Amino acid sequence: MSAPGxxxxxxxxxxxxxxxxxxxxxxxxxxxxxxxxxLEGNGLNVAGTMDIVLDPxxxxxxxxxxxxxxxxxxxxxxxxxxxGLDDALRASIGARGLLAVLGELSGPLxxxxxxxxxxxxxVTDLWAGFxxxxxxxxxxxxxxxxxxxAGLRRNGVLTRAGNGAQEGITRAVSVLAVLAATQPLADxxxxxxxxxxxxxxxxxxxxxAARCCAQDAHGLDDGEPAASLVLRALAxxxxxxxxxxxxxxxxxxxxxxxxxxxxxxxxxxxxLRPPGTGAWATMxxxxxxxxxxxxxxxQEWRAAAGTVPWAEPGAVVHACENPQVLQAAARAxxxxxxxxxxxxxxxxxxxxxxxxxxxxxxxxxxxxxxxxGVQIAGRLFARGVQPWRFACADxxxxxxxxxxxxxHGTLELGGQVGPTxxxxxxxxxxxxxxxxxxxxxxxxxxxxxxxxxx
Length: 454
Description:
Layout: H1 17-23, H2 29-41, E1 49-52, H3 56-66, E2 78-81, H4 82-91, H5 98-106, H6 112-136, H7 145-155, H8 157-161, H9 165-180, H10 190-195, E3 203-204, H11 205-212, H12 225-238, H13 246-255, E4 258-259, E5 266-270, H14 279-290, E6 294-297, H15 298-303, E7 316-320, H16 323-332, E8 338-340, H17 347-358, E9 362-366, H18 371-381, E10 386-387, H19 392-403, E11 411-412, H20 424-433, E12 435-436, H21 443-449
Parallel strand pairs: 3-4, 7-8, 7-9, 9-10
Antiparallel strand pairs: 1-2, 5-6, 5-8, 11-12
Helix pairs in contact: 6-9, 7-12, 9-11, 9-12, 19-20
């Protein structure tokens, strides 16, 4: 059987119905499917040969299309020249080549090779533009940038961002440039940057987002590409692991001087009686008299708590890391004021501690004897806070108590403890012992310093 019009005069316009019906014969379907796959993978290059298995009906239809006998090879397949197939279609009454015929039979062809090339070029342009923006922002020479970018390539953050990758980059670089104005993010040596942590508490997340993300106050919300890029950059700059939980992300924002919001981050206080007769000072005195623990938010700090002194110059205000210590102080009716950071200080805690130190109040801090606890303490001590029972002798005493039969037990140290310049022997002792101790192990001693009411 020969193809309709196979030797007739070619004509322009739609493919003749009889020819279309002939080519759409189900027996030729394997031919068109195999040819389409080949062309979509080779850049739509109509060249070379293919071995295709056809049933008797397909062999007959192909022979008619080519106007020549076809020979089945020992493998059971017939070898088809793509160029020969193209020539036959162009010479038919359909007057169109193989690519056009396939498009009419089963839809436009997808040039996967060209698509891959375009995608690769787009990725190259994206990264080149990323580097250019970092250069324009004065951040390209920072010591943390290269490992940060390498990490982004490995973990596919930009790939997952899809069409939002470019916008995410622009927003992230804008945020980092703004933060670099308040901390040495652009420094080639990260030492000075890390020594100044936590960064000064200046920004609220929504305000920073509106400023850097085209007035989009939610541009740095959890899950946004820009937020992921910035947090990974900050982790690289600060020598930390990329945050994997919502809590870790909030803590990292706080370390960078950014409050996730004005109400959830708090500083806990017990027994605080600010001097003065203003409304807030009076309220805090009343709460202290009633034996109430107070959660002070960033919103309260801005509205009232940050406008008055918390203690007289020269007074001592103790601070701890764990709420359990403050709770025990409240239960014992401790006579002296106590501030609790609840782990890494939130923005409001940083502001309060800095304000007290700046006003000449002696803030004395105690925390957990583990890697994270020592890091928190070291950052606070660098800001003028004084150690409170946080030396080598105190660690040894806490370790003995924790390991006693009725003790709290030890915990994972969490890695290697870094330098402890307020007492170099502390780092050596902790790294030698290889264990950490919660600050509750010294609870009786700490409560004694606070003048418990028992």
